[in-house]
Amino acid sequence: MNLHERYGLRHIINARGTFTPLGVSRTPEPVIEATAEALRHFFDMAELQRVAGGRIAELTGAEAACVTNCVAAGITVAVAAAMAGADAARIAQLPDPAGMNRCVVVQAGHLVNFGQPVEQAVRLSGAEVLTAGDADGCLPEILDARLAEDGVAALLIVDSRLSWGDNVSAAEAVALAHARGLPVILDGAAQDLRLPALLATGADAVLVSGQKYLSSPTAGIVLGRTDFVAAILAQEKGIGRAMKAGKEDIIGALAAVEYRQTLDLDAWSAERRAEAEEFAAALGTLAGVSTRLVADPTHGPFWRVHADFDDARCGRPAGDIAHELAAGDPPIYVFEADAAQGTLNFELLSLGADERRTIVDRISEIVGYEKD
Asked: In terms of domains, do 254 and 271 share one?
């Protein structure tokens, strides 16, 4: 019996991409094998972090690296590191920030909610958020004025499809912060496919998710300046104790980074585009449905399929179709943020051909008829 049968769990078709409430991703066999092997052994955990971090840094071109429990945990301990450094007394004192610079500047358009408000991940360290700009965006001079205020410890940048507004670019924000002598933490959770661009910003710590497109066990990968990464690890003697990575997380994240190096990303990207084109063509044969390929909005090397549903011809609005898909057996989850405009979005990276066909068949059943 597989796990679904053993525990009475539903099979899920996930066309929403690396969505945490759906289990994020599917792990490739070499990473599964390395993770399982880690579970069979004991390690000196400090040595494991040191060796794995060194290897991850070597493979990614970063100065140093370490592994946290997840990116949300990485934000909290990175902010703690910006306040307390590696000072044992300060580390033990947090989340009481008395006597420390405690303010983290975040552009308003980066105050995203990824299942938890990003400002809460900051506050867990004892810090507070200073917002720069407004819902329309942030100008460089406004950001710089915020960075110049008393008590500022760091700048946090979120590189996410959830961001909004016309914000100061990551590279310019880093330059402004560094001119003020402040470290920068860049939350690039789902951006591991464009790590060179994130590292090129010069951020002191770049955080990416292991379990998203890298498809490792749950882990946050921290890449950055040697002393800052060391200060992040030092928080495991304080509030970071509850956020530490296990042996299976560290080995799994390392194995996923190593596995990524074996891929020809150009060939991988071409294969994903061909799959998306095939899916779009099949979905586009249904009555009232028109499709188009849309590049990943955060500049990953892949495409999503956007499907526009004509209410009159489909017999029901796009939102109702999304709800019927999710209520079926197996449940099918899609991006429905644009459903009010008649559009459903599909990310297909982790789906097999049979699952893509099931989605088309189910929508055909819901719509009820095909074009002549």
From this structure: no
Does residue 217 carry a pLDDT above 60?
yes
Statement: residue 215 has pLDDT above 70: yes
Do 229 and 347 belong together in one domain?
Answer: no
Q: Do strands 303-309 and 128-132 pair parallel, antiparallel, or not at all (unpaired)?
A: unpaired
187 Cβ neighbours under 8 A, 6+ residues apart: 71, 74, 75, 118, 156, 157, 158, 159, 160, 207
Q: What are phi and psi of 157, to 5 degrees?
A: -115, 135
Nearest Cα residue to 351 out of 9, 13, 18, 11: 13
Distance of alpha carbon 307 from alpha carbon 345, whole angstroms: 6
The structure's pTM equals 0.92
Based on the fold, state whether residues 166 and 182 are members of the same structural domain.
yes
- Angle at 140 (CA atoms; ends 135, 143), nearest 5 degrees: 65
Q: What is the pLDDT of residue 369?
A: 57
297: nearest Cα among 345, 365, 263 = 345
Identify the CATH number of the domain in which residue 145 sits.
3.40.640.10
